[in-house]
Design brief:
Chain lengths: 383, 388
């Protein structure tokens, strides 16, 4: 008997990115929330926004909630100076189900639905122009499907806006968006979400109101962790909090994708390296962990690209190494061990070099081998 | 749901609604056809609905026997392929169970995995839209299908494609008094077609309709005498086929294009002093032949009118290819000699959609736009090409 593919539903929900949260549930971003609520309260909502800041600190979550409030005709100010909408309103139900026709979420995975086969099969290292045309420029030119009298008639959220292709050899996507960003039809709001704002053209940035999100303080992270409902063993919590450095999104990802296992494999190897017995297989182990993580991720996410997942996993590995070394550096500083501090800063420089190599598309295995070799060498020899 | 359908009418309806459904979409419901079988006071019928989020189409089939009312949400492409392939069957039985649909013929049985029909978006209906959007309702009117098809075909070809000025990617629809007109332009030519209407709109109403919706409307129109009810709101236009929304067999709804259409009336020249009457077929043939020796770089055809000899010489030249010269005798010519260049495709595009045998070309100067007219209800403006 034929069976309905259950994975498909999960994957589609994954693209819809979940239901919008009430603003009161967003932790540690009081400044950005205040700015957004003031804009609504004063009825001066700009048509183009950039939400920028580190990964996983709530930029997209805030963008989704803000979009939902703009699209909802029942949105009002609350006693705590925030905004809220009637949860039983028809618009709220559509937004919670991810089926509101005038909320458009654009992400790199939409390339999988392009009519162009080349784009469907691309590595998703950028958001192609055809995706922006199909999901932003054309819908932005049409009237909204619903006419509810809300503050905004259509909202577009572009996640990972830094991936908007700006290479000279390919279609300059960001240039194609300029006219729409400058003067969209009345009631249209666009939110660009990015953790690398410098990748956006100055002409794009100048057309948008910029909202800076920052990493959460230790206190906010503890508050968030208590309300998150995540089950993590107390032994792992300290390491995870150190690793994610104030990013709830990274924390959730680390728990859900099994990054704790990295710590268990890597920690003894890094300790041995610190004692002068650098393991020969450090580079290959790092490359294997990256490859496994990416393979697992692609298996669980139907529309993800293996190349993009590899690159993401390599970034996580470098983050892991740098957070560990930073922690040791802090310890050395307390001990007053100048020589060790010198060695650690040299190691952080090596990690930065590896990051640049990854950005230049050097093969991940080679980057990790080279990094392991350079980390194993005393800094004096490298100098 | 269990329903026995006449295959040919089902195929026709499925072909139409499938053309609305998205081929690929992150929202799976938009790639599906929603089937609703019901027994109401006016007999059994099967409704087929599809939408791509901007345009929605609902078709009602009466050539069905509904044994069990119900609904089903089925991927459009597979439904169409199966019904199309079952070409030996006169009837097909559609039965829905647990979100899946079985299609049974005499010698074949198909089971298509469907989805929850509750997830399908609500398709706007004519009567409900009018009732629920009274504040944003601009107008309602009625027009004969044939008249509407004529003004669509005479303008749709002139719309811009992939232009960043999205307003001219659609067709302007305007109604005032007892007239309605459509206007399309791509910046280098403009087509205007006008017709009368039974309704009387005291105030002018205008909107820009996406080309996809109008192309679909053309496909649905079969009976030229059939009335079409039209409703325009702030953000949507609805076309309802039939004498009244209650017994309608098709309803098309489209989101409108936002933006401002260029002031087209200023573009239409009013002081042309050279007037030439052509037999459409002769002019079309001459332009097509002269266009044979044009290429991407030299896309223009030179039209040299001689007032004394009453002749037109069409010539073209393409570097490294050659040159062409075609002569045409004119029956009727008013004005002085003139030489002017036009993109030949722009002329043949317009002649192709005109049923009239006689067309009139009006010119002013080599650097001024030309005008093609057919009767009182078609005006076509073409910008000249510099052939120097």
């Amino acid at each position: 008997m034929a069976q309905k593919p259950s994975q498909l539903e999960t994957d589609l929900n994954e693209l819809n990115q979940g239901a919008p949260k009430p603003l009161a549930h967003i932790v540690g971003q009081d400044g950005p929330l205040h700015t957004l609520c003031e804009a609504v309260r004063c009825d001066r909502v700009h048509h183009a926004w950039i939400f920028h800041g580190p990964k996983g600190v709530g930029k997209f979550t805030t963008a989704l909630s803000f979009a939902a409030l703009l699209l909802n005709p029942t949105t009002t100010c609350t006693a705590d100076n925030l905004l809220a909408a009637d949860p039983d309103d028809h618009t709220s139900k559509l937004l919670n189900a991810g089926t509101h026709p005038d909320l458009h979420i654009i992400c790199k995975e939409l390339a999988r639905f392009s009519d162009d086969r080349q784009i469907r099969e691309a590595k998703q290292m950028s958001i192609p122009k055809k995706v922006i045309e199909q999901y932003l420029l054309v819908p932005a030119s049409l009237a909204p499907s619903m006419n509810t009298g809300s503050r905004a008639s259509k909202v577009f959220i572009i996640d990972e806006a830094d991936l908007l292709d700006r290479s000279q050899t390919n279609a300059p996507v960001q240039n194609a968006m300029l006219k729409t960003l400058e003067e969209p039809s009345p009631g249209t709001v666009m939110i660009l979400v990015t953790d690398r704002e410098q990748k956006l053209l100055p002409t794009v940035r100048s057309r948008c109101q910029r909202i800076a999100f920052s990493s959460l303080s230790d206190q906010s992270m503890q508050l968030w962790l208590r309300s998150s409902g995540l089950e993590v063993s107390p032994g792992d919590v300290d390491w995870l909090l150190r690793f994610v450095a104030g990013s709830p999104g990274e924390f959730v990802q680390a728990v859900q994708t099994g990054l704790i296992a990295w710590q268990r494999t890597m920690e003894p190897m890094l300790r041995a390296m610190d004692q002068g017995n650098a393991p020969m297989d450090l580079g290959s182990t790092m490359a294997t962990l990256i490859d496994q993580w990416a393979a697992d991720y692609v298996a669980k996410h139907r529309y993800a690209s293996k190349d993009a997942a590899n690159k993401h996993a390599a970034g996580l590995m470098l983050n892991y190494l740098s957070s560990t070394i930073r922690h040791q550096l802090k310890h050395d500083a307390i001990q007053g061990d100048i020589s060790a501090m010198h060695r650690r800063t040299g190691m952080i420089d090596r990690i930065h070099e590896a990051e640049l190599r990854l950005g230049s598309n050097v093969q991940i295995g080679l980057v990790m081998e080279a990094l392991a070799a350079s980390l194993s060498c005393p800094v004096e020899i490298q100098a | 749901m269990k329903v026995i359908c006449d295959r040919s009418s089902l195929l026709e309806a499925v072909n139409l609604v499938s053309s609305v459904a998205a081929t690929r979409s992150p929202r799976l419901q938009l790639t599906c056809v929603h089937l609703i079988a019901s027994n109401s006071g006016d007999g059994s019928h099967l409704d087929l609905q599809a939408t791509d989020a901007d345009i929605s189409l609902s078709i009602r089939l009466h050539q069905v026997e509904v044994q069990e009312p119900g609904n089903s949400l089925i991927p459009a492409d597979k439904l169409r392929q199966i019904i199309s392939a079952e070409d030996n069957e006169s009837t097909l039985t559609l039965q829905a169970k647990n979100q899946d649909l079985t299609i049974t013929g005499n010698d074949a049985h198909f089971k298509i995995l469907g989805h929850d029909p509750q997830e399908f978006p609500t398709i706007p209906q004519f009567s409900t839209t009018i009732a629920e959007n009274s504040a944003s309702l601009k107008t309602t009117m009625s027009q004969q299908a044939g008249e509407l098809a004529t003004i669509i075909s005479r303008t749709l070809f002139a719309t811009a494609r992939e232009n960043s000025r999205y307003a001219i990617n659609g067709v302007l629809f305007r109604s005032e008094g007892k007239y309605m007109e459509m206007v399309a332009t791509d910046g280098r030519r403009l087509a205007l077609s006008r017709t009368s209407t039974a309704s009387n709109n005291d105030s002018a109403v205008s909107c820009i309709i996406p080309t996809k919706a109008l192309a679909l409307l053309q496909k649905i129109i079969h009976e030229p005498e059939e009335p079409i009810q039209i409703a325009i709101t702030e953000n949507q236009i609805l076309f309802c086929f039939g004498d009244s929304p209650q017994d309608s067999h098709a309803t098309l709804c489209s989101n409108l294009v936002e933006g401002t259409f260029p002031p087209y009336e200023d573009v239409i020249p009013k002081d042309q002093d050279k007037k030439i009457t052509f037999q459409k077929d002769l002019l079309s043939s001459a332009v097509k032949r002269a266009a044979l020796l044009t290429n991407e770089e030299s896309r223009g055809v030179r039209l040299a009118f001689n007032a004394d000899k009453k002749t037109l010489e069409l010539s073209s030249r393409a570097p490294e290819m050659g040159e062409a010269r075609v002569s045409l005798e004119l029956n009727d010519y008013e004005g002085d000699d003139i030489e002017i260049g036009f993109n030949p495709a722009f002329i043949t595009d317009a002649l192709r959609v005109l049923p009239d045998q006689q067309v009139v070309m009006e010119l002013k100067a080599a650097n001024k736009p030309g005008l093609i007219k057919a009767g009182n209800d078609f005006v076509y403006v073409i910008m000249p090409v510099n052939l120097q």
